[in-house]
Amino acid sequence: MTSGTQNRWLSKTAVNGVLLIAALYTLFPLIWLLTAATKDAGNLLGGDVFSFEGFDLAHNLSELTSYQDGIYFRWYGNSLLYAGIGALGCSLVSVAAGYAFDKYRFRGKEKLFALVLLGVLLPSTALSLPLYLLAVETGTVNTYWAVLIPALVNPFGVYLSRIFSAGYIPDEVLEAARIDGAGELRTFWSVGLRMVMPGFVTVFLFQFTAIWNNFFLPLVMLSDKDLYPLSLGLYNWHSNANADPTFYPMVVTGSLLAVTPLIVAFVVLQRHWKAGLTAGSLK
User: Fold this and answer.
1) Using one digit for the tens of pLDDT, what is the confidence trace for 186-244?
2) Three-class SS of residue 223?
3) Which of 42, 73, 148, 193 has its CA 20 to 30 A from that of 220?
4) Where in this chain does the entry annotate a coiled-coil region (predicted)?
5) Which among 43, 29, 37 has a CA at the least distance from the CA of 61?
6) Span 61-280: which CATH code?
7) Where are the domains of the chain?
8) Burial of 72 (0-12, 13-18, 19+ CB in 10 A)
9) Cα–Cα distance, 217 to 60 (Å, whole number)
10) How far is Cα 161 from Cα 170, in angstroms, rounded to an integer?
11) CA pair distance 27, 35, nearest whole angstrom
């Protein structure tokens, strides 16, 4: 084996080793969650989590279903409502705004877009108190709207949509649609939106994940447990587990079920998502 071949083999081995360690590090919490969800409180707190000894998943699921008349699945439905409708509405708003910033000329466009970019720099937690005060003024505190309406706006989604619009929608196609008699809304809906669908799906996935994992805004806005999303409901159970350890199996099992929609969304939409991520390298 020549020195060059040996160096390439060592480099390849080192890279693969680093990737394997990174993959194991990434999968470790999921593996822990899978095995821990099969334990009762005693085995879970006993320390031997990475085994299926004392398999009790069916009992944990039964407790999850029956506790407080199945309030966990009401939280699950709330999270699906917040994340599904919020991500869909946000994607439409973001794509429409990005399309307008890219394809239209109007006074102060770049200054307005600079304000959008400024919004990207603001952490969402910093906006929770102003949003709460606005919700108080509009009477939407402790309602579904208090969580849904803020989810419709995402400055990063607008920025990303403008990039996708510039890369995916040729101006010539829009001109052809206008010559054929299509109005501006018809041109956007029938031509522009379809051509920028990878960007739409990318924004949808980002926003769906952000809303599904959102914790601080529901904590500020909601006091009725029937309106809680999963993140807030599981946090409430975890707080109770400090005094009553029987909550731990429900928290862990509920957390395992909570990651399912995210996995399903990424698997189902991965074709569009991958196309969106690689768009910049192909253009």
Assistant:
1) 899 988 888 898 889 999 999 999 999 999 999 999 999 999 999 999 999 988 887 88
2) coil
3) 73
4) none
5) 37
6) 1.10.3720.10
7) 61-280
8) buried
9) 29
10) 14
11) 13
